[in-house]
Each structure stands twice: as C-alpha cells, then as structure tokens.
Amino acid sequence: MGKLMELLVASVMPVLKLLIITALGLFLAVDSVDILGMDARKHLNNVVFFVFNPALIGSNLAKYITLKNVVMLWFMPLNILFTFIIGSLLGWVLIRITDAPHALRGLVLGCCAAGNLGNMPLIIIPAVCKERGSPFGDVDACYEHGLAYGSLSMAIGAVYMWSYVYNIMRLYSIRSSDGPKFEALAQATSSATETLEGLSTGRSGPLLPLAKSTATGGHTEFEQKLKQGIQIFGTMFNLRRLFAPSTIGAIVGFAVGMIPHLQGLLIGDKAPLRVFQDSASLLGEAAIPTVTLVVGANLLKGLKGSEVRLSVIAGVIMVRYVALPLTGVVIIKSAVHLGLVQRDPLYQFVLLLQFALPPAMNIGTMSQLFGTGESECSVILLASYALASVAVTIWSAIFMWLVA
Questions:
Q1: pTM metric for this prediction
Q2: What is the per-residue pLDDT across 310-342, written as a single tens digit (0 to 9) for each?
Q3: Which residues of the chain register pLDDT less than 70?
Q4: I need a labelling partner for 5 at 20 to 30 A (CA). Which of 95, 243, 279, 386 fits?
C-alpha cells in the first residue's frame, strides 16, 4: 500500500505542475486581464513553433541520441503509429455509435487518433524521474534518457500528425457543405483559367512552323502537368507542414547525435563549438512553460460552450483514457514478451504513456485551418485536459507499477 501511494504521488506531481501553468495561461487570457489575448497567443505560438520547439528537440536529440540508441529505440515510431491507427479506428466506431454530425467527424477522428505526444511527455517524464517514489533508478540518468525519449516522441508525433491526421481532417472538411476553398482547388482553377486565356489569345501561323511549335508545346505541356502534379501532391500531403521546423530540428539533432565527428565538435564540455549547443539548449528550455501557457489560453474558448453533443465528448474521453491505454498495455506487454522491446523500465513507461495522453493541441490549429468545428474542438479539449489530472495520474501510477 505504501509503494502504491509513492507511485501515485510520483505520478500526480508532474500533472499538477502542468495544470497549474495551464490555469495561469487561462487566467492571462480572460478579457479583464488580456495579457494572452488572441494576437499575443498568435505571436507566442509562432515563436514556439519556429524557435523554441526546434531548439528543444534538436538540442536534446543531439545530446542524448546516438546511433546505438536509435537502433535500440526502433519500436517507438511503430508504437506511435499504433496509437494513431487504433485511435482513428476507435474514433470511427464512436462516430457510428453517436451518429456525430458530418462536419465534426474529422474532428472526432483527429481527437481520438492524435495524443499530445510532444509537450506532455517532455513535462511528465523528467518530472517523474525527480520524484522520490520513482522506480527508474538514478535521477540524472533517468532525466537525460527521459528527455531523449520525449524529444523523439515529439518529433515522430509531429510527422504523423501532419501526414496522417491532417489529411483525415482535410478530407472530411472538403466533404462538409460549409467547407472552405482549399489551395489545391484555387490552383486548379487558376491553372484552368490560364489555359483558357492562352487558347483564346492564341494566334495562327504557317503550317510548317506550327508543327515545330506543337512539339515544343507538347514538351511545355508535359512540364506544366508535371509541375501541377507536384503542387497537388504537396498540397494533399502538406509537405510544408510535414517538414515543419520541429521536424527539421529533429533531422539536425539526429545528424549531430549519430555522426561522431559532429557530436565531438558540438557536444561536451570540451567541444570547440559547444556554444551553439548551449544556446540551443537555453532556447529550448523556454518551450515547455511557454507552450503550456498558450495551451491554457486556448482553452478559454471551451468555457464559452458549444452545441457539441455530450455523447461525443464522453466518447472521445473514453477512447483516450480507457480504450487506448488498455490496448497499449496489451501491445507493450506482448512486445516485451516477444523480445521486441528492451527491458528498460523508463522506455516501457514512455511507450505505455503514449497511449494515455489527451488529444493533441494541434487539433485546434487544424480545425481553425479548415474552418470547421472550432468551438466544438475547444469544448472537447477543455473537457479532456480537465480530466487529464485524474486520468493521466492514475494511468501513470499503473504503468510505473507494471514496469517496476
């Protein structure tokens, strides 16, 4: 009983820290205070997106990830993919059961599929390492490995988020009757207009030169179609978002960590270029508190209410906090039994935790991007994060007990 209480205390403290900072962000966003108003949140979000997150991910991966570690951590990308696929399947079942409105189906699938794989693990894992009842051994080693696991989780989650979930929500918003006009449609319309203008203003010429022109025109037409195809592909899979600053930071961090010569130049007390690593680490330390404040400020919309059904909110919560964690226990325990996952308690804990997180905050960004379900998204996120204090605490204690 005493050990269980120690695990509960060790798991509740990180979540409480997160909630306190989130509540502060919410307070700073109310109209009477208006420190984190809409414009302030937008600018702060840009700083986090373009500066803090890439610095955090890149510096941590460069410092803690090596070629040997990457080989040992091969199961994590697969595990995160499992959370997305299983979550979206459970979301599809939820849509069938609740008969959610068509305009909200992409939002429901997104909330069920994508967990907060970036900020919450980076907050929870290092904090758990520092608690007295932690089962993960040496505090310093646990802290370093925890930051590496959290950074890798954030980088992989960002790739899946903008390649998988983005396209699910995009397809449902296109099918919605009030969906916005997308860049692909605008590009196609513009291309068609230019073609018609070219036909209407074309001039006739002698027969033989026309034959030569036709060959050249065919070549030009092929190039134009190829260019349009590349543009449509880029729009469909949102390559700009896929190669977001966080992803680029992860690529740089992997390169530095896995190439010994680069690591020797940048990492360590005697590295000649260590000032760059120290500067990146200093910037990265601001990422977690800043983004947590923004998360709290963004939840303000949810307090204003919405017409989203209670059954939909309850269903998303059941998927994220009951069905997915139970599925995760089965998957990770089976993987350990089959020898696919190393017997490192902290690593197993991180893999399990990835199944028990609230919906990703980027779901709100996507709903704003597509112009569908913005207020409903705020309500779902508010309810999910309000219950995170209980759900994530309980599951963290259970996971620590399972891996101890």
A1: 0.77
A2: 999 999 999 999 999 999 999 999 999 999 998
A3: 1-4, 6-7, 10, 175-219, 222-223, 225-242, 305-306
A4: 386
138: left (phi over 0), alpha (psi -120 to 50) or beta: beta
Sequence-distant (≥ 6) Cβ neighbours of residue 63 within 8 angstroms: 144, 148, 257, 267, 277, 281
Per the structure block, which two tokens stand in for 90?
């459970």
Instruction: Tell me the per-residue pLDDT of 350-367, one tens digit each, with 9 for 90 and over.
Output: 999 999 999 988 887 788
Q: CA 281 to CA 130: how far, in whole Å?
A: 20
Domain residue extents for the chain: 2-177+237-403
Do 64 and 138 touch, CB atoms closer than 8 A?
A: no
**pLDDT tens profile 40-73:** 888 888 888 889 888 988 888 888 788 877 788 8
C-alpha pair distances (Å), 88 with each of 315, 316, 366: 13, 11, 16
For the segment(s) 2-177+237-403, the CATH number from 3.40.50.720, 3.40.50.880, 1.20.1530.20, 2.60.120.260 is 1.20.1530.20
Listing DSSP states for 122-166 in one string gives: HHHHHHHHHSTT-SS--HHHHHHHHHHHHHHHHHHHHHHIIIIIH
